[in-house]
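[Discussion] Sanity-checking designs against the backbone

I'm trying to build intuition for which residues belong where. Below is a structure token string of 212 positions. I'd appreciate it if someone posts a full sequence so I can compare it with mine line by line.
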């Protein structure tokens, strides 16, 4: 039967054989390397406004556990850049919110200088695979949304409980059919009275017929 590593810390002179001592040393070194984990968002620099990509403060959700199985909660990691889907000046603005759960990955080198300069830079310190060099990639394990863009086999659905606004100098709709269902319909800046005319009508007190 293979011998498992004992609980607690081992000293280099502990008599469990060279293989076990080497395995324990490797295990301890690997435990210092952060790769990816689930975190909770505790603070966000942006709140949906038009602005550059911001930063979040996060807390890892998987507790640390010692050799005796005693857990220790993580502290908050501050000033972590978060992911935005963006190419050049084109972006989808969907900033994280406090309480979101998402995945955070950790760089192999210190990225602190690159975060400041947004360009090439040497590592800010000798640290490697550290919590301080995290990058928040977005939501996981979150609840049902109330505002969304839904892509499915039936088509694309845009739903908002408040407002959907299209802001552009020119808006073009190309469709074989357009259906508008609304209790009220308001047109702003449309001058129909001075440009909309009917031909073949004699002056007088009569009205034109309705639409054909």
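Best answer:
Here's mine. Compare freely.
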């Amino acid at each position: 039967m293979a011998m498992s590593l004992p609980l607690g810390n081992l000293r280099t002179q502990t008599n469990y054989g060279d293989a076990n001592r080497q395995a324990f040393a490797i295990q301890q070194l690997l435990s210092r390397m952060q790769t990816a984990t689930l975190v909770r968002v505790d603070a966000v620099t942006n709140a949906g406004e038009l602005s550059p990509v911001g930063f979040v403060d996060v807390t890892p959700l998987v507790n640390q556990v010692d050799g005796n199985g005693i857990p220790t909660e993580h502290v908050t990691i501050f000033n972590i850049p978060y992911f935005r889907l963006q190419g050049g000046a084109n972006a989808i603005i969907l900033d994280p919110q406090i309480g979101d759960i998402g995945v955070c990955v950790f760089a192999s080198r210190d990225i602190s200088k690159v975060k400041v300069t947004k360009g090439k830079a040497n590592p800010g310190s000798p640290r490697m695979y550290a919590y301080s060099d995290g990058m928040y990639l977005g939501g996981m394990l979150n609840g049902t949304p109330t505002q969304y863009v839904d892509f499915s086999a039936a088509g694309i659905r845009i739903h908002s409980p408040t407002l959907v606004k299209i802001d552009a100098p020119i808006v073009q709709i190309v469709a074989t059919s357009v259906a508008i269902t609304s209790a009220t319909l308001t047109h702003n800046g449309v001058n129909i009275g001075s440009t909309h005319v009917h031909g073949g009508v004699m002056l007088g007190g009569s009205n034109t017929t309705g639409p054909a």
